[in-house]
């Protein structure tokens, strides 16, 4: 006996096949499908079928004939196929995470002017990894980020715009914001656990997520992380796959007053294109940067699911670390 969701996947795949064949529901009993993706046919067109979970208990199933016409893969379709490996392989061949990222940065909904400047200057470093929150992916990600952290410091100035963007193949589909947040912090924790064995804190920052001068540390360099994923409530962070962008905290500091001018321009753009400024920033501003990492509006009693392995920082937050110029 199938579980209910398994049955619906099976039924949906079978119906998709019949629509390709042209017999519709009248031929429902004819083709026999196995849950491994194989299909037994009798004088019917061979095809590949994939069952896709699209969230909230819904299932859809595209069916591709053996000689499919050119197809377009839409960003909103999840890439996690439970039946029909061949279909997911075809889609992954069509998909280029870096090209997706560059296209997203140039959309109207995307608000960050720093990322646009970095794209124009060719100073975005991109890394693509199998799974967000997976230990092996986190190790590979950390190795790349460590090299980036070592290279970036001598190049930073008030005119530099550099960022490291990591994208992930899994999990596919649309995650709830809380689930993305959980996986993002798990991934950052895995990276931090490796980093803290060898490297300490950046000069003006701490790795305590409850502090106002918190930064995510790699190789002794502090970063602000920006989470993006298909299920984000903010259009400016609603990317086609799970992703995290890392911006240098030192870069923010070197911008000086330009930081606030850019911030105002970004928020104006956010209001115009997304209807409002992200309420996380307007509510908590600089009180606790960790609240802003995932992009969702956190609850008042929210506790960051991240534990610092560093010794407590001797540097305490002061108002002149982040302070708007008078007037």
Automatic annotation (TrEMBL):
<dbReference type="GO" id="GO:0000287">
    <property type="term" value="F:magnesium ion binding"/>
</dbReference>
<feature type="region of interest" description="Disordered">
    <location>
        <begin position="305"/>
        <end position="327"/>
    </location>
</feature>
<dbReference type="GO" id="GO:0008897">
    <property type="term" value="F:holo-[acyl-carrier-protein] synthase activity"/>
</dbReference>
<dbReference type="Pfam" id="PF08892">
    <property type="entry name" value="YqcI_YcgG"/>
</dbReference>
<protein>
    <submittedName>
        <fullName>Uncharacterized protein</fullName>
    </submittedName>
</protein>
<dbReference type="InterPro" id="IPR014988">
    <property type="entry name" value="Uncharacterised_YqcI/YcgG"/>
</dbReference>
<dbReference type="InterPro" id="IPR037143">
    <property type="entry name" value="4-PPantetheinyl_Trfase_dom_sf"/>
</dbReference>
